[in-house]
Amino acid sequence: QKDGYASFMLKEIAEQPKAVADTLLGRIDEAGSLTLDEVRIPAAELREIDKVVIVACGTAFHAGLIAKYAIEHWTRIPCEVELASEFRYRDPILDPRSLVIAISQSGETMDTLMALRHAREQGSRVLAICNTNGSTIPRESDAVLYTHAGPEVAVASTKAFLTQLVACYLVALYLGQVRGTKWGDEIRAVVRDLARISGAVDQVLGTMEPVRELARSLAGKDTVLFLGRHVGYPVALEGALKLKELAYMHAEGFAAGELKHGPIALIEQDVPVVVVVPSPRGRSLLHDKIVSNIQEIRARGARTIVIAEEGDATVEPYADHLIRIPATPTLLQPLVATVPLQVFACELATARGNEVDQPRNLAKSVTVE
Ligand code: F6R
Predict the structure, then answer these.
(1) Contact between residue 66 and residue 231 where contact means Cβ atoms under 8 Å apart
(2) What angle do helix axes 159-179 and 58-75 make, rounded to 10 degrees?
(3) Is the Cβ–Cβ distance between 357 and 158 less than 8 Å?
(4) HEC states along 279-343?
(5) Counting atoms of ligand 1 from 1, which one is nearest the CA of 365?
(6) How remote is the CA of residue 132 from the centroid of ligand 1, in Å?
(7) Residue limits of the SIS domain (predicted)?
(8) Cα–chain-centroid distance for residue 337?
(9) Which of 15, 11, 298 has the alpha carbon at shortest distance from 148?
(10) I want to staple 141 with a disulfide (CB 3.0 to 4.6 A). Which of 44, 128, 202, 321 is the partner?
(11) 215 and 347 in contact (C-beta within 8 Å)?
């Protein structure tokens, strides 16, 4: 079933354009409106929601962190994101006007399931974002938005993550549409870009050879660090998680603005640091900030691996390695910026002789605590 690929992970990385397109299919109409009939929570109730709380584990949690930026920006509803394993054992403030979103590829993750039960006990509505039809989490939720990634066999999540992001964007845009918040030309343009995004993911996949080469050259390293700002920060966390679980290396993701508060002490001669650079258009302040972060770490000897939008020339003087991604609106950038990090981790792990589909000590579905 690997269809000629060396691993399920490589196959699943390659399937991402289709997974993304399938998850969008039938959910955006010709006029650019969202039709999420599966979200059976009545529009009147969605208009009353005063807080969104996202619970998830691992990679799905990273999708949730990215969703927060989109939900708050497009809907102005406050949004919290919490690890399900933390949420379930505390006393969160919820009521029937809170919408809890549980994100899970398998639909069977014990902590996420317990977190949603905890939320329902307090009268909150629960919406599941899930990849597995009829699994426990959607069965116990008030509504479910399925991701259409198809079966994900490799233990490390790749295509499911991208489709979780798509589902989160759809929910955020739908909430905006239903509530009328900020719904206007900006959002309409985002919907148009989202509808076309699978082409951009495909484009990234076509340019990964230099990333593979770079990954192989780093197989002897002990540490790789990842930096990002805004939605690039969860992307950095995801890049680090992929590298830990597949390559068994020390990998950490940081918010670039935190560098001076500690992590910069880790920078020494030739340590590889991957930096996710936001688009220079739009939030240009964010872009300028990260360019100075790159300068700072390079001055301290870091080997900079910069992921930046095509045409962004400002980063060129400071990048030891430059990975180009297509121009996308900032909030959607994780859909293209994550792909090189998946390829990087997979190739580096293979170069270290690891089995990428079945990393040691890990299970695909974590049904115990
Ligand atoms: C990482 C990975 C895990 C899962 C986590 C949640 O590559 O796959 O971190 O994301 O165990 O699993 P689901 O989404 O099935 O709840």
Answers:
(1) yes
(2) 20
(3) no
(4) CCCCCHHHHHHHHHHHHHHHHCCCEEEEEEECCCCCCHHHCCEEEEECCCCHHHCHHHHHHHHHH
(5) 15
(6) 13
(7) 42-181, 214-359
(8) 9
(9) 15
(10) 128
(11) yes
Asked if residues 361 and 313 have their Cβ atoms less than 8 Å apart, the reply is no
0.95 surpassed by complex ipTM: yes
Does the C-beta of 106 come closer than 6 Å to ligand 1? yes
Whether 122 shows a pLDDT value over 70: the answer reads: yes
Q: What angle do CA 122, 125, 130 make, to 5 degrees?
A: 120
- For atom 5 of ligand 1, the residue with the nearest CA is 58
**How is residue 111 written in tokens?**
């902590």
At 55, give phi and psi (nearest 5°).
-125, 140
Going from the C-alpha of 99 to that of each of 46, 208, 313, 369, the distances in angstroms are 8, 39, 42, 25
Largest CA distance in the chain: 58
- For residues 214 and 305, what is the distance between their CA atoms, to the nearest angstrom? 9
Q: Which two tokens stand for residue 283?
A: 């939030």
**Separation CA 219–CA 85 (nearest Å):** 33
Please tell me if the CB atom of residue 57 comes closer than 6 angstroms to any atom of ligand 1: yes
Query: What integer pLDDT is reported at residue 108 of this predicted model?
Result: 97
364 is catalytic: yes
- Are 277 and 293 in contact, with CB atoms under 8 Å apart? no
Residue nearest to atom 10 of ligand 1 (CA): 59
| Residues 248-261 pLDDT 10s | 999 999 999 999 99
Candidate list 18, 51, 289, 364, residue with the active-site label: 364
What's the alpha-carbon Rg for the chain, to the nearest Å?
20
Amino acid identity, position 102: A
Burial 249-271 (b: 16+ CB within 10 A, else e): bebbbbbbbebeeebeebbeeeb
The residue whose CA is least distant from atom 11 of ligand 1 is 58
Tokens read off for 9:
């992970």
333 lines ligand 1 (CB under 6 A): no
- Does pLDDT of 100 surpass 90? yes
